[in-house]
Write a structure and sequence with these properties.
13 helices; 376 residues; 15% strand; alpha/beta; single chain; seven-stranded mixed sheet; globular
């Protein structure tokens, strides 16, 4: 194999989708029925998600972001919400859209998730909630965060965009806190094309969200409150039902590929997100941490050189949210670990139907880049 470059780019990710033959008849059925949104298949999808996550019910929406926005609105949050900065910026957009003040706190250095001790230190009389993130599929410390929320009478919400199928202590992510909000976009293990879904054991909250996604209107053109148009179509739901069927297989596959990456790259001075013994992660992303003093190459140069040789990578998440133009005015606290991790991690290609030889190609070219540009 020529190591100088690949004939085709290996992408950072690809959606793993069913054959059209499996879903074509259902699409035809929906078109013929004329009921193309919030009907039979949306309800079926919601029921299957609630069953999978061991929650009472779920609400499917047009995106994870709309789910975050409406969940916060239905919980009537006010003032400050404590949240991490190492996340996709949609987490913070949802707070600002609700006129809430994000209060960024630092992360745990090994797991990259929000540090409960930093959460506790940041609580003030203005704090109404904690919005935590299960980063790359690794669950946040849900037990410690729930204890803090209980002690200080705070709402607890999880941005679970990466974590559909993750577990902690054998319990499925989706049943913790006041609500968990998942993304179903094309980069996720379970996808509806575009979409999101909220799970909760709070039946009243789920009922409100079903109204909220339809302008707050229960169908009589007399809205009970101001909501959004955030419905999910039947076509999206059909795709979600099908991808849910092979989710467990895909989680197992991604863990196998992540372990292959680790075996191949562990000799090159890189480190990996620590996966706790009591956790199952989805490996929505697989990121490596580089120490330039050991590898002889920094993250940005590695990103550039891999791209030149046909390997697509992503700097997830850089810059961290508190350094982004839209949110820099909210930063008050020192976030040294966040800034350090954000500046030194790089996500490598990973998708559920990725072949082992593709991982080996990535690793071989990685070795070539280190030999050419690093200390080896």
């Amino acid at each position: 194999m020529e190591l100088n470059s690949l004939k085709r780019m290996i992408p950072i990710t690809k959606p793993t989708l069913p054959n059209y033959e499996k879903i074509g008849d259902k699409f035809k059925e929906v078109i013929n029925s004329g009921m193309i949104t919030n009907s039979k298949y949306v309800k079926e999808f919601e029921n299957k998600v609630a069953n999978y996550t061991n929650t009472e019910e779920s609400t499917a929406l047009s995106s994870c972001t709309s789910g975050l926005i409406l969940t916060q609105k239905m919980l009537k949050l006010k003032g400050e919400v404590i949240t991490p900065s190492l996340t996709f910026h949609a987490t913070t957009h949802s707070l600002v859209w609700n006129n809430l003040t994000p209060k960024f706190v630092d992360i745990e250095e090994e797991h990259y998730c929000i540090d409960p001790e930093k959460v506790k230190e940041a609580i003030t009389s203005k704090t109404s909630a904690i919005l935590a993130v299960h980063l790359f599929g690794h669950p946040a410390n849900v037990k410690a965060l729930q204890e803090i929320a209980n002690d200080y009478n705070l709402k607890l919400i999880f941005d679970a965009a990466h974590a559909f199928g993750s577990k902690i202590n054998g319990e499925m992510i989706g049943s913790f806190g006041d609500a968990e909000i998942f993304s179903l976009s094309p980069t996720k293990l379970i996808t509806t094309g575009e979409g999101g879904i909220v799970t909760s054991k709070n039946k009243e909250l789920i009922s409100k969200l079903k109204l909220a996604r339809n302008y707050g209107d229960g169908g009589d053109l007399n809205p009970q409150f101001s909501g959004l148009n955030a419905r999910l179509s039947e076509f999206n739901a059909i795709l979600g039902i099908e991808t849910l069927e092979y989710l467990e297989k895909n989680i197992q596959r991604r863990n196998e590929l992540a372990n292959l990456y680790k075996r191949k790259l562990s000799n090159f001075g890189v480190k990996f997100q620590k996966i706790s013994n009591n956790v199952r992660t989805t490996f929505k992303d697989f990121s490596i941490y580089l120490n330039e003093e050991i590898t002889g190459i920094n993250r940005d140069k590695l990103h550039e050189k891999l791209h030149e040789k046909g390997i697509m990578t992503r700097k997830y998440f850089y810059p961290p949210v508190h350094k982004q133009g839209a949110f820099s005015s909210f930063n008050e606290l020192s976030l040294q670990k966040t800034e350090h991790i954000s500046s030194n991690i790089l996500s490598l290609p990973l998708y559920s139907h990725m072949e082992e030889n593709e991982v080996e190609q990535v690793c071989n070219i990685f070795e070539k880049v280190i030999q050419e540009n690093g200390k080896r």
